[in-house]
Amino acid sequence: MITFSKELLKKLRASSLIAFKLKNIQAYRLATALICYGEGRGINEIAILFGISVKTVVNWLIKFMSGGINWVMGKHYHGRGRKEKLTKAQQKQLHDMVAEGPEAHGFTSGIWNCAMIAELILLKF
User: Fold this and answer.
1) Are 61 and 105 part of one and the same domain?
2) Same domain (yes/no): 94, 69
3) Are 72 and 34 in contact (CB under 8 A)?
4) Contact predicate 56/47, CB 8 Å
5) In angstroms, rounded to a whole number, what is the distance separating the alpha carbons of residues 96 and 12?
6) Fewer CB in 10 Å around end: N or C, the chain?
């Protein structure tokens, strides 16, 4: 049996709390299962408790032993879609330009539309 240090259990609990706040069920179940194991529960008991196979619990333990807490933290959901291409400063600048209105940036319409904002981004950034 593998034992976890108190510090590692503390990090796993923090990870499960993050997963709970992000409503990431998969990461929450993973972190909680590892906590259960670290607290001395058996693999069979964990499998029954979470409704998963013993093989899944063993795989999680193997991956955790090779990847550590970073593997667990990497399971957290960080949003959908593409990564942002504009920096925070550029986003702030774009916000200010949109607030100024389209006519201030050479457009003839007084109301923004998606195509106009896309063109503004293309021209300015």
Assistant:
1) no
2) no
3) yes
4) yes
5) 41
6) N
Q: What is the pLDDT of residues 74-84, one digit of tens each?
A: 776 556 667 78
The Cα–Cα gap between 1 and 5 comes to 13
Model pLDDT, residue 80: 63
Q: Which pLDDT tens digit goes with each residue over 3-50?
A: 889 999 999 999 999 888 888 888 899 999 999 999 999 999 999 999
Same domain, yes or no: 34 and 67: yes
Residue 52 belongs to a domain? yes
| pLDDT, position 98 | 94
| Cα separation values, 57 from 26, 37, 65, 70, 77, Å | 13, 9, 12, 18, 21
**Average pLDDT over every residue of 79-94:** 84
